[in-house]
Amino acid sequence: MSDIHSERILILDFGSQYTQLIARRVREAKVYCEIFPYNAGLEKVKAFKPKGLILSGGPSSVYDAGAPVIDKAHLELGVPVLGICYGMQLLTHVLGGQVAKSTKREFGRADLNIHKNEGLFAGIGESGKATVWMSHGDRIEQMPECFSAIAHTGNSPTAAMADEKRKFYGVQFHPEVVHTPQGVEILRNFVYTICGCKPSWTMASFVDYSVGEIRKAVGNKQAVCGLSGGVDSSVAAVLVHKAIGKQLTCIFVNNGVLRKDEAEKVQHSFKDMGLNLKYVDASQEFLSRLTGVEDPEKKRKIIGNTFIEVFEREAQAVGGAEFLVQGTLYPDVIESVSFKGPSAIIKSHHNVGGLPEKMKLKLVEPLRELFKDEVRAIGREMQMPDDIIDRQPFPGPGLAIRILGEVTEGRLRILREADAIVIEEIKKAGLYKQIWQSFAVLLPIKTVGVMGDERTYENVVAIRAVTSQDGMTADWARIPYDLLGTMSNRIINEVKGVNRVCFDISSKPPSTIEWE
Ligand code: XMP
Questions:
Q1: Which of 62, 233, 244, 354 has its CA 20 to 30 A from that of 425?
Q2: Are 406 and 302 spatial neighbours (Cβ–Cβ below 8 Å)?
Q3: Which CATH number fits domain 402-503: 3.40.50.2300, 3.40.50.720, 3.30.870.10, 3.30.300.10?
Q4: Considering the entire predicted model, what is its pTM?
Q5: Residue-wise pLDDT tens digits, 8-61
Q6: Which atom, in ligand 1's list, is nearest to the CA of 436?
Q7: Count H helices, E strands: the chain?
Q8: CA 400–ligand 1 middle distance (angstroms)
């Protein structure tokens, strides 16, 4: 175990939608942590050598048939335990207390009355009060032996409890969400004061550690990386380049469905950073295979398969590569209980699965332990340009799934121009970083318009802009009317072939972010 990993917390997941958030908060406190499913065996948990355990929330009630339970032995490791919401109820249940259905569900903001500003609540709610976020139906009716209440709300006489001797704590509210303003402090109290962890998980130390690990793994062999220009593959490439320099060749494939000037921009950025970049313009190969194809999933398959073919061919041309660098993130590898991580969904769209097996390459995944915000922080640590770090996500099948119907050169030209205007205006308005994705979509219909004295019969462009945390759910971004007006005017005036612009006001679910 390296220094940066030695002070660590283990989070046992009982299926809460907030489990990843707990992990991110602990990591923001510079303490390394991982998430295991609640039923991870005792041996696995012991081998992890946690300095503290956090039991996440979850959708169940402890009395439900088949509710996830914890083996009591997990509580006998001699390390502090913090149960959050369901985790607290479970702690109560397993240690002999009583949980009961509350007559009133408590959901949303609540006023927490803190009994003493110490331990878990040191420095919290100096006035004895703090705002917290509740989301529970059950409540603690009787605490297990040796526990005492350390906070209450109007609805929950035991909103938080502690057994200071064993260092077991339970909170009915969610300290990990932003609606609990001092939640981060509470988690810090737990990991620093109660578990005794030191803040050693820093991005600078991660870069040093990772460079060493990559060198050890790759030795003097060659590695290849499929670079898309997106944040994950870019940061992975730069990190590996830092470790093995010219032994890494990045392959950037132009699949013909990139955005305006994207191929040039990506090449410039990476050459500027000194990476060994192989640019492959395979746009004609992709576009000819897309001719006549209208079905979105067929488009995805064609683009995915063609990518594999082209990449394999080009990687072989590099000669002797034994390693493949991929920008896999931690949410892709967490074994989650009931909720698949957001990236699991995004990944199912991913088109390059199977590449390493097929090419018999060993994988190098330097970002496997990281959340997206940590990946960005590492990019900044390595002085990568903001332009790459802050990029909005862009799907692998690119503009092909934003041109509804057949992808042709003519339709690509229209969408590229319209999309460039949307991005330019969003950036100009200072909204680019706040918005998860913003782009243009070309619809498969024509409408009537009038320009000068003439009737026109031309294309419709839709503007899509959404806010989101992870792409799993999303809401349409409330961008100002004036900005929408500017985008619409510019698109209709500057992009030949468009006479109407619409704004998509649907959220996900039930819609999706992309239109195909
Ligand atoms: P949806 O449209 O499903 O998109 O709400 C969720 C997120 O996934 C991206 N997306 C894709 N990414 N290949 C990808 O690499 C795909 O086929 C694909 N389809 C959607 C989308 O841009 C959004 O960020």
A1: 233
A2: no
A3: 3.30.300.10
A4: 0.89
A5: 999 999 999 899 999 999 999 999 999 999 999 999 999 999 999 999 999 889
A6: 24
A7: 17, 18
A8: 12
